[in-house]
């Protein structure tokens, strides 16, 4: 009906119309924006230079350690739980009903933001690192199972058939026909997710799920912006180190 | 006389050792981290019961609440859209600075890298905390949080895109006597346009997800309602809000995937 060019302009018009609707719907006040920028200068002045007394530094180290420990535990539990989910969510080796159930679980985990999961986990198991572990584990399952399931769907079915023809039981078929083909990707994905989990574990404390996020929120509530800046610097440093380690390991194993 | 019966082994000695060490490392890290957190195992036994208890209380979702969440839900999508537009405007100059072939000198290159890194390393909720302090609670802080967080993401990927352009076209425009702005507009932009469109739509999709939590710290969107509902233990309302968020996220994910196929 339209042809390529017509479709293109229709898409442009649609996007433009949507953005106009958005701008109109939000009705941002320009004066507030300008005032905010002015206050931003004041805020930046209070944040720089970052400062923390020795007790403050000790608290940062302690809570950052808690964040990292949470990420470590949740990466292990998340991946252990992901493996069966991934097998059940792979179209080529899983029965239909199981496939749909596990795809649903993966979609649910991926669609909800980590902090939403965290805030619910806090109400379920109480304030503290356990809630964080539950939340990050749940998020890990969605991410890891999806990518692992895609890898399983891409395997060479010849290996599976060969194992089956040699009289292997279903478990043995998985172990000898499927697993060897996905192991190389497994290491890379694990490290990649670990990196993301470190990032997540530094913020979910904002809703009470343990780690340095709690400290950050309290510093904000006390208007102690120099300490906020110190905490943020520490978080950025940890995130960058984790990213570097993750990139290094993935380059070596893939 | 004994006959050496060859035994089939799946892995050679080195592989076995590697596997053993990897498993050991995972175990040590797991146990060590668990000990560090000092939680013991007692409260762990109750965890599955607590979680199922919560899920049971969420059923059935409070459908009557739907009317009250439509407006905040639309606001969430709007915040994501306008925030993405802002991110595009911010990220183009940053990408030019952070790309090796278009940056004027080493200092500007590192400035571009620094902007990208800081923007990317700070979570959207932390940006929202900062901008709520600056601009007061409301959608404005949310938009700017989305924009500033996405700037690094788009800036990094666009810089990679710019580094791969055909520089001959840029030289040609420059040789024709174009001023720097025109060189960028006619030499660089046409080559990265499909990437810009695709990345922007992709980031918009991520931003819809991100915007759903901005309300936790007062930066607008559906997060405000969700936070209130969770705080007052209104689990059936929480369930309804989660279903609504789920629907919006899945629709925007589909829309984003469809549009990206179109521009490619």
Task: Give a short summary of the structure.
Chain A is built from 10 helices and no strands. Chain A has 254 residues and is mainly α.
Domain count of chain B: the total is 1
Tell me the β content of chain A: under 5%
Give the strand content of chain B: under 5%
Topology-level CATH name of chain B: MetI-like fold
Largest interface: A-B, 58 and 62 residues
Task: Give start-end ranges of low-pLDDT stretches of chain A.
Answer: none
* Element-by-element helix/strand order of chain B: HHHHHHHHHH
SSE run of chain A: HHHHHHHHHH
CATH architecture of chain B: Orthogonal Bundle
User: Structural class from helices and strands of chain B?
Assistant: mainly alpha
Helix-strand makeup class of chain A: mainly alpha
What do you see in this structure?
The complex is a heterodimer of chains A (254) and B (264). Chain A has helices at 3-26, 30-47, 54-88, 96-111, 114-125, 129-153, 157-165, 170-201, 212-221, 225-253. In chain A, 83% of the residues lie in helices and 0% in strands. By secondary structure, chain A is mainly α. Chain B is mainly α and 264 residues long. Chain B has a single domain, classed as MetI-like (MetI-like fold, Orthogonal Bundle), CATH 1.10.3720. Chain B is built from ten helices and no strands. Chain B has helices at residues 13-37, 42-58, 66-98, 106-121, 124-135, 139-163, 167-175, 180-211, 223-231, 235-263. Chain B starts with 12 loop residues before the first helix and ends with a helix. The interface between A and B is large, with 58 and 62 residues.
């Amino acid at each position: 009906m339209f042809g390529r060019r017509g479709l293109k302009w229709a898409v442009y018009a649609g996007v433009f119309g949507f953005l106009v609707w958005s701008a109109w719907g939000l009705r941002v006040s320009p004066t507030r924006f300008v005032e905010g920028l002015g206050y931003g200068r004041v805020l930046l002045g209070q944040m720089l230079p970052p400062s923390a007394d020795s007790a403050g530094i000790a608290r940062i180290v302690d809570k950052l350690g808690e964040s990292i420990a949470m990420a470590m535990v949740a990466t292990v539990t998340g991946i252990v739980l992901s493996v069966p989910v991934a097998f059940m969510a792979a179209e080529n080796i899983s029965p239909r009903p199981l496939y749909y159930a596990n795809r649903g679980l993966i979609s649910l985990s991926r669609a909800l933001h980590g902090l939403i999961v965290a805030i619910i986990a806090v109400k379920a198991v109480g304030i503290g690192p356990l809630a964080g572990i539950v939340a990050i584990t749940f998020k890990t399952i969605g991410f890891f199972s999806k990518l692992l399931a895609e890898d399983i769907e891409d395997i060479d079915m010849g290996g599976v058939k060969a194992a089956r023809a040699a009289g292997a039981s279903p478990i043995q078929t998985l172990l000898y026909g499927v697993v060897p083909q996905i192991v190389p990707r497994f290491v890379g994905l694990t490290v990649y997710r670990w990196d993301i989990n470190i990032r997540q574990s530094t913020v979910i404390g904002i809703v009470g799920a343990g780690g340095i996020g709690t400290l950050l929120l309290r510093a904000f509530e006390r208007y102690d912006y120099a300490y906020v800046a110190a905490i943020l610097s520490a978080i950025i440093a940890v995130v960058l180190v984790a990213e570097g380690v993750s990139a290094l390991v993935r380059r070596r194993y893939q | 006389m004994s006959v050496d019966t060859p035994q089939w082994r799946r892995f050679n000695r080195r592989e076995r050792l590697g596997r053993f060490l990897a498993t050991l490392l995972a175990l040590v890290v797991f146990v060590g981290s668990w000990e560090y957190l000092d939680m013991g195992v007692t409260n762990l036994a109750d965890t599955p019961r607590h979680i199922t208890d919560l899920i049971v209380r969420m059923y059935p979702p409070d459908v009557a609440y739907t009317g009250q969440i439509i407006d905040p839900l639309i606001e969430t999508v709007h915040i994501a859209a306008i925030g993405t537009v802002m991110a595009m405007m911010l990220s183009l100059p940053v990408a030019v600075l952070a790309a090796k072939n278009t940056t004027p000198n080493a200092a500007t290159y590192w400035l571009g890298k620094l902007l990208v890194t800081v923007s990317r390393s700070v979570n959207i909720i932390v940006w929202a905390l900062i901008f709520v302090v600056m601009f007061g609670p409301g959608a404005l802080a949310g938009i700017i949080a989305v924009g500033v967080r996405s700037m690094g993401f788009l800036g990094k990927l666009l810089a990679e895109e710019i580094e791969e352009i055909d520089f001959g076209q840029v030289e040609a425009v420059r040789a024709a006597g174009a001023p720097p702005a025109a060189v960028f507009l006619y030499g660089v932009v046409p080559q990265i346009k499909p990437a810009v469109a695709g990345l922007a739509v992709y980031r918009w999709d991520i931003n819809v997800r991100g915007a759903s939590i901005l309300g936790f710290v007062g930066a607008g969107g559906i997060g405000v309602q969700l936070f209130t509902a969770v705080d007052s233990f209104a689990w059936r309302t929480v369930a309804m809000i989660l279903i609504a968020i789920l629907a919006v996220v899945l629709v925007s994910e589909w829309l984003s995937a469809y549009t990206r196929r179109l521009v490619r």
